[in-house]
Amino acid sequence: MVKVKSPVTAAIRVLRQAGVAFGEHPYQYEEKGGTAVSARELGVDEHSVIKTLVMEDDTRAPLVVLMHGDLQVSTKELARAIGVKSVAPCTPDTANRHSGYMVGGTSPFGTRKQMPVYIEESILELPLIYINGGSRGFLVSLPPAELQRVLKPIPVKVGI
């Protein structure tokens, strides 16, 4: 087993600056493996692995959606919840430009652009979540209350 060194990313700097106690979980990244691979590699439930999705509304304004790894986002419900005509995932290049991270390594912490953050409300009920730390193959674990304190995400119910 090769010990992978944890990177120091913009996300890690934000977490440290905010005084968040978090666990570091490097793992072997697999292209297009998603949360199923990270959950398997870390031996945790995919429901507690949170994906960070960069989307745009109908005016092309970017936003971040945090969703359980084993669920999808209903873009129709999200648009209704946030009062816009439509919401769609960004292309990988556009997501990279908005976030400053490469797709597969996108963290909601330390994004290049300030974007509103929406969170599936049931994530806030979990005791511990695993979320990208700003690099492919690197998750951090923390209580959702800490994520809420730092990011002040807007709870929505859009998971399917």
From TrEMBL:
Organism, as annotated: Geomonas paludis
Q: What is this protein called?
A: Cys-tRNA(Pro)/Cys-tRNA(Cys) deacylase
Keyword rRNA-binding in the entry? The reply is no
Name the Gene Ontology biological process terms: translation
| Source taxon at top rank | Bacteria
Q: What EC number is given for this enzyme?
A: 4.2.-.-
Q: Which SUPFAM superfamilies match?
A: YbaK/ProRS associated domain
Keyword Transmembrane carried by entry: no
- Where does the YbaK/aminoacyl-tRNA synthetase-associated domain lie? 37-149
